Amino acid sequence: MIKYAVMTFMYRGHIDRGDITHEQLVELVASAGGQGLEAFQRDFINEPELLPRYRKAMEANGVGMPVVDVIVNLVYTSGVERTARIDELRQGLDICAELGTEIAHVAGCKMVEGVSADDGRKKIAELLAECADYAQERDLILAIENFNPSPELICKAADCLEIMRLSGDVVKQVFDTGNFLEVDEQADEQLPLLYDRICHCHFKDFRLPEGEARYAGAVFGEGLIPNRKVAAELVRRGYDGWVALESYPQGGMGPREVIPGELATLKGMFE
Questions:
Q1: Calpha distance 80→84 (Å, rounded)
Q2: Three-state DSSP class for 115?
Q3: Residue 217 in contact with residue 179, Cβ under 8 Å?
Q4: How are beta strands 103-107 and 64-71 bridged, if at all?
Q5: Cα Rg for the chain, rounded, in angstroms?
Q6: Backbone dihedral angles phi then psi of residue 163, each to the nearest 5 degrees
Q7: Contact at 8 Å (CB) between 225 and 191?
Q8: pLDDT tens digit string along 42-65?
Q9: What stretch of H or E contains 166?
Q10: Of 18, 22, 23, nearest to 60 (Cα)?
Q11: Tens-place pLDDT, residues 75-116
Q12: Model's pTM, two decimal places?
């Protein structure tokens, strides 16, 4: 059975401005039919009081935090950096455990001067493998995604596969339907290559503004990403995990205007 989550990072500005509270966001997701939220570990590091607030709000609304995005760059250039990256990753895994998270989505890896893309992927795999037991002790699945801020490093399906294999297959895939565009790949074409390793999916939409070379966020369901094809293939293959809505609010809209409609669109793709 497909389970639906909503990513929250895009609403941090609305929260900071006082448009909505964290508790109201949790309630909104639940009332819109979501069963979970997906947040950044940095939110809970920067504001430690958020952790008990989220636990209380999620319990009150019958939702969970199945996935946390642990933002850390695992490409390092020295032993000191290596130790710091491991410590940062483990801190994120501890937060996941306190939230009852199932999947630690490790994102944020990027190119570092003096380290090639090939060596960067080896370092990512190495540190993930080193932390695999730490994650398992906390009942966490470690996962990476095709991450478009780092197209040379970890965005192509083949590059993600390389990292997972180099890790000793202790890492799974967060399948992001939109990010493949950055490397001229299509999500529906890459799904068969990665399906057996997928533990979670991000659904988003992009558009290409007239006269621009870079993609921009779009109203979900109205952009260029073959989300319906991906959803249909996931259903055909019997996928029964989590999918998360990654919205890009348009025209100054906030979570109240975006989440109910776009989550309904996402759920409709799986019917």
A1: 6
A2: coil
A3: no
A4: parallel
A5: 18
A6: -65, -45
A7: no
A8: 999 999 999 999 999 999 999 999
A9: helix 157-166
A10: 23
A11: 999 999 999 999 999 999 999 999 999 999 999 999 999 999
A12: 0.97
